[in-house]
Amino acid sequence: MTNDELMKDMDIKKSRCLFCSLGCEVSFRAEGGRLTALAYDQNNPINKGSLCPRGHYNLELASHPGRLTEPQIGRRKVSWEEAVTFLRGELGAFASREIGCLVSCLQSNEAALAAVKMAGRKGIENILSAGAAADLEAYGGSKWQVPGARLATLEAIEQSEALLIVGDLLSRSPVLARRVNQVKYGKRGNKIIVLDPNKTHTSWFATSHLLCRPGTEAIALAALAGAIPFSAAAEKSGLPAAQLQQAAADFKNAASGTVIYVPQTRRLRNDLAVYYAKQLAAGSDHKSFIVYYLYGNTLGVNTVIDRAAPGHPTYHQLLDKIDRGEVKSLLMFGEDISAGHEELQKRFRMLKFVVFAGHFESESPAIYDNSLILPLATQFEGAGSFVTADGQLAVCAPIAPAAGSKTLPEICRLIAEISPAENEASELAVQGPVSQTKDEAEAKAELAALPPLEAAPVKPITYFGNNHLVSNFFWYRVNVNG
Ligand code: SF4
């Protein structure tokens, strides 16, 4: 029986995976309104029925018995009515400048806009996104204007004659392995150049691995883009100038090419690296760049907040305000950013009131004297749109009952009277990052000031292909501190 025949008789519901910004389509079998199993729709154009190991956790996200279903004041379970009365009362005790609001980059564009509008109604200026630090830094670099730089499509990646991959792409977005392989074996002479200080699952596919010193990726990219001499980059990155020169020529001479950037925490200046990745791609009509963020809607949430709340503070500015006691209450929508983070928990002890809207129980009630937990709907229970790494709008319809949770727009409406127009959020989100001018001399001075990093401790990887028993095989994380 073919996959199509198997799926025909089932009640199949479709949504999207947000565990990375590739945004694979995820299909579920539904029984009696509940999502009971994953299905694999081989006809979808993004992942053609494949899901990576992380993507399989979507079933748990949709139907795990540990999902929050009732609000909690501290440890006490309460009704939504009591929670909202409590929330309004507590927030009313603070001046608007004393309240901070963070929106997770796993939330929808509509959620980000609802939070901005709620903040606007309440006079809250401290509204910003929450996501992976490296993602947010890279997103900053994506705003720096480079004339001629184009965002890659999935088709452009697959049809490239040369890929320049910075970082461990196949741990970040494993489903892309099929497309990378398509390039590697599609045509004789195709090139896969990997720039990474470590041997990784991705470098294993490389035709040329630029094994640079840790933290010098931005410098190597600047040389590949022709912004600094190869000799200068060689000295700092430890890469032979001839190898850099060859990689630059391979990429330049390919009829088509894509620079794929994977933000990583241990990299120095992800923003500068993205800026030079854009410069490298801007050289020809058939070259493009793409950034594969860890959080599925990093592009959408940041674009909506930047465009709808210009002048909002940065993450570090917000933390400084908390340290100085200027921000006393924090709304964390979709992410308890202090969970498992001792240093942040210490800093957040200054806070007088913490709200966490999430899918699962967080550490907050035990840590903060005064906290409120709100059960938050996932993309499976509430409608929303998201922007994938290639700038495409992914629209999710509700496919499962909410079981006690509410979407972020619903929660924001309970806090303040707001009514964003239909499509307003998605129209903002697809406009892409706000363009900013970066002074080239300043970028070069910042590059020159980058210190070298020590090599990260690396766990040995054993590949299926090398005839050894698979040991230490952990698809997601290769570097202990990666
Ligand atoms: S590659 Fe990314 S989007 Fe696709 S299933 Fe894995 S985590 Fe989800």
Polypeptide structure, described:
The two termini are 43 Å apart. This protein is an alpha/beta fold. It is built from 19 helices and 17 strands. The strands form four sheets. It has a seven-stranded mixed sheet with strand order 5-4-15-14-13-6-7. It folds into three domains: 3-63, Phosphorylase Kinase, domain 1, CATH 3.30.200; 72-131 and 296-420, Rossmann fold, CATH 3.40.50; 137-294 and 436-453, 3-Layer(aba) Sandwich (Dimethylsulfoxide Reductase, domain 2). It has helices spanning 3-8, 58-63, 80-92, 109-122, 133-142, 154-158, 169-172, 177-186, 217-224, 230-237, 241-253, 270-281, 298-308, 315-323, 342-348, 364-367, 408-415, 424-429, 440-448, and strands spanning 12-16, 25-31, 34-39, 72-73, 76-77, 99-104, 126-130, 162-166, 191-195, 208-210, 257-261, 287-291, 329-333, 353-358, 371-375, 384-387, 393-396. Strand 13 (329-333), helix 15 (342-348) and strand 14 form a beta-alpha-beta unit. The structure holds iron/sulfur cluster (SF4). Residues 17, 19-20, 22-24, 47, 51-52, 54-55, 173-175 line the site of iron/sulfur cluster (SF4).
